[in-house]
Amino acid sequence: MTRMTDYAVATRVAQARKLAGLTQRQLAARANVSIGLVRAVEQRRAPATQAFIGAVAKTLRVSVPDITGQPFAPAPGQDTEVHAAVAGLRTELAAYDLDNAAVAQTRPLPQLTAAVHRICTYRRNASFHRMSEELLPLLGEVRAAVHRSTGHDRDQALVMLCELYYSSHSLAHKLGYADLAGTAVDRLAWAATKSGHPLWTATAQFQRAAMLTSGGDWAAAASFLERCRSNMEPRLAAGQRNDLIAWGGLHLQSGLAAARGGNRDTANAHLSEARETAVRLGDDLDPVLSFGPTNVGIWSVALSVEAMDAPEALARAKTLILPPGAPKERIGHHHMDVARAWLLYGDRVRALSALQDARLVAPAQTRYNPMVHETVRALARAEARKVDTLTGFAVWCGITDRL
Fold first, then answer.
1. Of 10, 81, 106, 111, whose CA is between 20 and 30 Å from 310?
2. If we measure between CA atoms, which residue out of 64, 69, 59 comes closest to residue 38?
């Protein structure tokens, strides 16, 4: 699809539909959504949900970014520098199975481990600017370490490479570079397989399923996740920590696929399984999938939002306590979900307040999230007179076209 100055999903859905030669009714039938919803989205009377975007993108044979308009233009300053790192990431990810001749000598593994731990911290805190500064050179150095070591040292370097590929995925995904995010998942799967690390293997599976779900293929995601869990189920009785985290995380991703597919009971069943596993795990210390009781609570709100059940989402959010030290990446997502819930509920003031909370915790992540953009547009359309606070937030997000 051609790039447009109007980044609204409404405009892009209508354009893609017309290019495909479909009427609104035909699109609704093929995407298995209501004709009323197609009309409401195209006429800007309702925000597009992620489930709607995925279903429409799959039906029209376009990518999700074609519908959302991602990547959004970066804000001047540090954000421009973050986006500029993407070109280097593309080259680095293409060289994954090659030694790095540009690195004369790698640092000792303990020093590399400390540097990789910082990247992990940046990822969990949604610190895009710091991550982009350190990620690329460290990727090249750890890649060199992998190809120049053997045995246990090589396995250690591969595990570090898993974190760096995962952080690459996180950065690319949140900035809206879906193709690069997909490549990073492939590289993560490669490094995880080479290292034999069960949690990183499950993390690659988690993200692969997320890509299927985002693209509207919920049945494929559900089937793939079921196969992944069946392979690890025999090990659960031993209660190994990594297996519990993987098992619970894959159930959460299954819940998302079910919720997007409109199967609320199945989504809640997966949520219950994840909650029981989190209780068995007993803490929130997992630095990879952030799996634990708190993140299950965050996901419980998200799944209700995906099911368009605002009262349930808000009830779950009300009882959720976010402890000090919870990853800002997860807290930011939670506030975005709460904003969507308040919008569905009809409370525009609280919806905007939740968006401001997300901005305070994880600004860059909030600015470039397409559901934040949809929520802002919906709030603007619902206001007879644009209030300064809402207008300011829209401008901060980079929404300068017709709301």
1. 10
2. 59
